[in-house]
Each structure stands twice: as C-alpha cells, then as structure tokens.
Amino acid sequence: MDACGSPLNRSQSLASGLEKASPTWKPPHSRSSSTLSSPHSRQLIKDWEVIDDLQAEVHPGGESPHDMTTPGICEGYLLKRRKWPLKGWHKRYFVLEAGILRYSKSQQDVLRGRVQGSLDVSHAVMAVNKKSYRIDLDAGDILYHMKAKSHELFYIWVTKLQAHRLYKRNEAAHIHSGLLTALCHCAAGGLADRNGDLSSAGLTDLTVAPGDPPSGNTAVNKKVSAWLQQSHQPDACAQELNRCHLDLSELNRLIKSLQTLEVGQAFTNGDLKRIISIQNLSLEKPKKSKSGKIWGHSRTLSRVEALGMLSSSHLSNSSHASVPSIPDYVYSQLSLPTATLSPDSKKIQQDICSVSMRVLASLKSVHETLSQERQKLQEAWEANNTHQSAEPSGVSNSSQGPPSVTDSAAEYFDASDDILCGSSSEVSDESGLSDGSTTNSEPEQGHVSVTRKYRASIPTVPVGAAPKSTGRRTTLPSPCPDNSHVGLMAILYNNIGKDLARVSMPAALNEPVNLLQRLCEELEYSELLDTANNTADPYQRMVYIAAFAISGYASATFRNRYKPFNPVLGETFECTRDGFRFISEQVCHHPPISACHAEADHFAFWQDQRWKNKFWGKSLEILPTGMVNVVLTRFGDHYEWNKVVTCIHNVLSQQRYLEHYGEVTIRNLKSNACTCKITFVKSRYWGSDGNKNEVQGTVLDQSGSIIHRFGGLWHEGIFCDTLPTPKCIWKPNPQPKDYLLYYGFSTFAMELNELTPDLEPLLPPTDTRLRPDQRMLEEGKVDETDKKKDEIEERQRERRKELSKMGKDHVPRFFKKSTDSCGRDVWITNETYWKLRENPGFSRLENPQLW
Ligand SMILES: CC(C)CCC[C@@H](C)[C@H]1CC[C@H]2[C@@H]3CC=C4C[C@@H](O)CC[C@]4(C)[C@H]3CC[C@]12C
Questions:
Q1: Is 359 among the domain residues?
Q2: Please, is 543 exposed, middle or buried when counting C-beta atoms within 10 Å of its C-beta (0-12, 13-18, 19+)?
C-alpha cells in the first residue's frame, strides 16, 4: 500500500526535504527548516515538501498591487495515480488554465470537452517530491497524485502550478475587494440603483414577468415558463437576496469601522503567540501537566512551521510580520480572542456576528428554495425522460437471463443506450484511493442514473419501517457539547503518523461510545444475515450478505463531528439484542486492535479491527486492514470480506464530511461457486451530490458472469433489480427525533451505552458501560470527563510499564491469536466469555481493574 509514499509522513519530512535539497532545483517558496526535523521524521520519509507559495503575494487590506496577469496555460500528459490500484498510474492529459486544473484521458478528449475531473489549485495543499517527480494536490474534497516523466516537466509543472495558485488567490482577493466596493456603492445608491445594476448586468433577463410570453416556442420552453409562472418561489428568493444585499452593505460598513478602530493594531507576533496558545498550539515545548498529558502531545508549533504552515518569520520576535501572510487554514483555526478587543470593537464584532447570522439565514433560505425548485425541475425532467424511453433494459435483461459481464451496472439500470461505461474487467481488485475519478475506468453519467433509479424506487418499496421498539432509551441524558472552537490543527499535525485511535483528544471532541461499541453498530442490520440464512439460492444469498456489508457503513452518515473513545487495553463490551449476542475486547494497544465476536441462531460474525491513517493535509484517510467474517448456520458458508477506505474530508474544518470508497470482495471460503464485488464509488465533483455515497455491486458465478447486480447509496439504501422480484433490499432505519443534538446517533447507537439495572450486576467491571469518563460525557459533564479520561489513560500507562518491567506481554482475556486461511494473524474468540458470565459469574471472579 505504501509503495507510492507515505502521505502522513510526507508532511513530517519537510525539513529533511530541505536538508537534502537537490542542487538543481528547490521550490521557491517551500517551507522547510533544517533545524526542525526530528530524526524520526527524517527516517520515515524523505524528499517531500509542502509548497506554501500562497502566502507570498497575499497582501493585507488589498492595498498592494496584485499581479493580475493570467499565467499561461500549461498542458500535457502526466501520470496520475489510479484510483483503486494504489500501485498503478495512468497517463492523463492535464490542462492548467486560470487556476483550474482539469484532466481528460487524452488530448482529443480535451478538445471534445470530456473532462474527467477538475480542481481549483489555489485551494489545494500542494506537496512535491522532486526525486520521484511527484506532485500531490489535496483540495479537501479532491485528491490528485501526479507524476511527471522527467525533471524538466516536473519543474515546469510545479512552477506553473505555483503561478496559477497565486493568480487564483489574487483573483479571489480582487473579486472580494471589488465586491466590497460595489456594496459600498449599493448602500449609497439604494435599492433602485441596485436593480439598475442588475439589469445592466443582464440579470433582468432571468425574471419572467407573469404576463410575458415565453421567450421560445418549443414545448420545453413552454413548460419551463409555465412552471416559472406557477412558482412564486423565485420572487421570494429575489426578495431574500435583496435583504441579503442590504445586510452585506451593513456588514461592509461594520467591518470598515472595526478596521478604523483597530488601526495599527494588527496582530503583532505577541498577539499571535497568545492566540496560538489559547488555541492549544504550543510554541515552546509544553510543560507536562500533572497527568503528563498535553493536548496535541508534546510537539511544538515549530513542527507546524516545519510543515509549511507558518514561516519562522511570523514567530520570530524581531520580525513584525503580520497575520495576513499566514495561509487561510491557519486563520480558520486562529480566531482573535474577544478579550483583546476594546469595548467598542466588541460591540461592532457582536453586530457583525448578528448581521452575518442574518445573511446566513437568508442564504440558507434561498438555497433551500432553489434546491426545491431544482428538485421540481429534475422530477419534471425525469418524468419526461421515463415517458420517452423504452422499457427499462433491466426488466428485459432479467427475462432473457443474466446480463453479460460487459454490461455496466449503469447501463443495466438505465434505459438509454448512449451511456457507456468501462467493462468490469477494468475494475481492479484492490481498494485504495483517491482522486476525482471514479472506479470502473471512470464511468460517466451512468452512476448518477443508477442512483436516480434507486431513488425513484424507494417510495414504492415498503421496507425500512421504523425499528421495533426495544423498550430502551431513545435519547441520551444530555445533548452533545459544541466543539467547533477546539483547534484541531495542532492535534492532528502533532500526531501525524499516529493511529487516530491512539491520539488522545479533549473530551469535547469525543462521542459517548467507544470503538468497541462502534464495532457492534455494524450489526445494526443483522436481520439481513437472517434473511441470507433463509435464502436457498446461493447467488441471492450473496446479495443479502453484500447488503449487510454495506449497511455497516450507514452509521457514519451523521457522525463526523465527534470521535469515539479509545478503549483501554483489556476493556470489554457485551451486547445482547435482536437474537444475537456480541462481545468485543481491546486486545492490543500497539497497534490498537479491537476484536469482536457475535453469535446468533442463524449466523456467527467476527472481525478484528485495525487500520492505518493517511493524512494528506486537508483530508484524513482511514485504511482498515482486518477482514470481516460471517458464517451462516444453515449452509455452513463462511464469507470473508475486506473493508474500504473511509476518508474524512476537510478534517480540520467544520465542513468535515465522511466518504467511503474502494472495492470490497466477498468470498465464500466454503465454496468458490460465487463471489461478490462491491464498489464504493468516489464522488467526482465537489459539492455535487450527483453520485455522492454511491455503491454498486455484482454477484459473479465461478466463470465470472454476472448473476446479480445491485446499487444505491450507502446512506440511503440498496436496490437489487435482478432478484425474482426486483426490490429494495436494505434501507437504514429512520433517525430518532433530535438526533443532531445527540451526536447524530441512531436509536441503536443511543442504546449502546445504556446501563440498565438488570444488566449492571452481570457485567464484568471491564465493560465500557462502567467506564466513568464516558458516562460523564454522556451526562454532559465535559470538564470532569477530561480529568477522568486523563486518569484512566495514566493508569493504563502505568500498567504497561509494570508489564514491560516484568518482561511480560498483555494476554487478552476473551480472544486468542490465530491465523486465517490466508495465513494472516487474526484474533478469534476463546469462547469463555458467556460461560464465565453464566458460571460462576463475573462478580465471583477476579477481574482487572481498569479505572
Ligand atoms: C477530529 C475528530 C473530531 C474527527 C472525527 C473523527 C471520526 C469521524 C473518525 C474517527 C475514527 C473513525 C472510524 C475508524 C474506523 C472505522 C472503521 C471503518 O471500517 C469504517 C469507518 C470507521 C468506523 C471510522 C469512521 C470515522 C471515525 C469515527
């Protein structure tokens, strides 16, 4: 997997990059400092440098003249890392124009306007490796890994990319100041003037007065204008936008007065240091707290600096460098503490805040209206399309036997035959990352079409009724804390290369379930395994197993703001419900491994969860390495599958969201009659939900022919069209009321940490439900949680020290090490938990005291 370099460590190695700077070329603005590299980072990766050229020409207040000359277009072939096979590269034609990097398969495709992906280079973290001619761009949503063929090409591209990044940045600044100026004029000129401005900009054409005749005479035009006439929403939108306009002028005025008040008081380095320390970024080696813990661990800000985040001149006492030259993402983490402001400024700031909220509310309402209108249009368009198209090919296909391998899933679901997708033979069998392209040799339109069909099918399919009431709690004792103020940058950058599971974070970032409990969440839809066990046909059975494998990812939908607690070594969790009983245990600390086992009448389920992290600057990828296992009682089938990559996009900002991508292969170790491939499609376009969260799968027979196809969205449901009765085979349960106030938990998740009186005496004291810090967080006592968590972690460290003094290894209590059919190390149950629980009962046994 790491053949192509280690992104996490890439950032760490900036300093070493400089030390070994090639005499031939050094990026002009690369941030690197020879004093800052640790021997560790030097060892881990060499040669990667993060380019922070963006700060070079960003001038405070926009006074300095920006060079607004558009840099020349740069185009040509580069190698681009393939999506799934991390190893492979393919040749792609790239065009860099006006700060936007686009790519296509070939130059001809560019001419035909067939673009496969595009990225705004000014928004990306850019890292280069001059030895291997590699250029990585991480824009948070999109990640490109590119490679030039020669040193010359590499040099040209890097130089051009830098020029375009600066250009785009300056352009944005220019537009921004232009907008402000325009707003000033607007405020002076009043509403009438503004309308004049709009019409002179040609915008009046967009509004159709109720009595006006439609501008064109085609049927479509008539429909659209009829629709526009019916719809009063656009008017409301226009009004809302006018309001917004006024508010923006007001904002502009407020900002100006704030600037006047604070003139000459731009941040000094002293301010910056203060802000940084408030945000838990440390400038000096932090002193150890009593418990020995420091948020973000004991690295220094100079590490961040070494990562290209801050230049040393910003921090040196002699320099008066001002904040605006610090890259945006640092700003986003560093907000001016109100304590340093004068009362007048404070008042203005509050006003700014409330006007901003109004603007936000207006824009939200406009957005909502427009989304509704778009939906209406889309429905109208779809209705039109369905009307015109022939019978869905899926229906005819299934009556004529299984579809052929070369049919793409998209074609299958889509009636139109002009949509072409790559054959599934092009789909690699490796999961991995991670660029703007998609899997099946970058299929086009078709994916969106599958999703639409799936969505259209949902209302007619009566599945996914509200979960049966379990008589258990449906909410938590206390709502989740707001954690938007916690500076994540320092924590993440200071823990680069570490497993996220081992990084201790402030309690405000935690959710009151831990990773052992999250493992149990993968069983929320275990009824799919019951159905599989009751399905005689092996291919159909596989469809249900696949649906189960996908359903395990659904809980991630609303869960990107908080991190599960890290279990301590030896911590356990049990859960009995819906006919299964589940146990999990933290079996290893380094690397962290959580093992679990569930058994029911119809199935057994087990896995040990471990993963690697890759941090690319804006996104964090989680690459699980363990396999999931299911055995069905009736048939003795033993299914085994891998997990896909989970990416936390924009991990440092509040725009964070999760995406799963990669390919899952399900094998039945008892028989090779049938296998299943599931692709979690990587979303192609930023902000578009066209193919967001899309999943496609096929069940193949021994000869590789496709027997079943299914598709849908991992957060919304899966539809299988090739079953005797085409149907929705899985749909997530509806979320409980006010779920956003409660960490985005599902009803299932709410119940996990519930401690009922009947259960308490039966649990071993190592059970997560008895863990005091997690309980405190659940009750909303965040500060107390922090203290308790410190204590528990410290106790764990002490136990480890003692063990290693005695030269002993930790021995898990309920799991044992074994090897699977492929010779991989796995942790499986030692079958003692439930026996001991029953007899003599944990209260009569000697148990480890973990807290
Ligand atoms: C910095 C903090 C606040 C960001 C939040 C991090 C959260 C979203 C991260 C931390 C650990 C992550 C989990 C780690 C491991 C897995 C197993 C994988 O097979 C599915 C995703 C899943 C379940 C991850 C989901 C996202 C996750 C919960």
A1: no
A2: buried
Task: List % helix, strand, coil for the chain (3-state, nearest 5).
Answer: 40, 20, 40
Confidence at residue 281, expressed as pLDDT on a 0 to 100 scale: 35
Domain boundaries, position 776 = 471-844
Cβ(622) to ligand 1 under 6 A?
yes
In the chain, the amino acid numbered 758 is D
- What's the number of domains the chain is made of? 2
Of 174, 205, 222, the position where a domain reaches its end is 174
Other C-beta atoms lying within 10 Å of the C-beta of residue 207: 13
- Distance from the alpha carbon of residue 560 to the mean position of ligand 1, in angstroms: 7
Q: Is 50 exceeded by the pLDDT of residue 433?
A: no
Q: Tell me the C-alpha distance between 544 and 527, whole Å.
A: 10
Closest ligand 1 atom number to CA of residue 509: 3
Q: How many CB atoms lie within 10 A of CB 381?
A: 12
- Residue of the nearest CA to atom 25 in ligand 1? 556
pTM confidence score = 0.61
Domain stops at, among 150, 174, 198:
174
pLDDT at 182: 56
Locate 114 and state its tokens: 């067939």
Helix (H, G, I), strand (E, B) or coil at 305: helix
Q: Is residue 293 part of a domain?
A: no
CA-CA distance, 737 to 554, in Å (whole number)? 18
Say if the ipTM goes beyond 0.95: yes
DSSP assignment of 421-475: ---GGGS-S------SS-TTTS--THHHHHHHHHHHHGGG----PPPPP-SS-SS
> The CATH number of the domain where 567 resides is what?
2.40.160.120
Residue 48 lies in a domain: no
570 CB under 6 A from ligand 1? no
**How far, in Å, from the CA of 189 to the mean position of ligand 1?**
52
Strands 563-565 and 510-514: parallel
For the record, the structure tokens of 476 come out as 């938590």
* pLDDT one-digit tens code per residue, 752-794: 999 999 999 999 999 999 999 999 999 999 999 999 999 999 9
Task: Give domain status of residue 437, yes or no.
Answer: no
**Is 147 touching ligand 1 by the criterion CB < 6 Å?**
no
Q: Is 612 in the pocket of ligand 1 (CB under 6 A)?
A: no
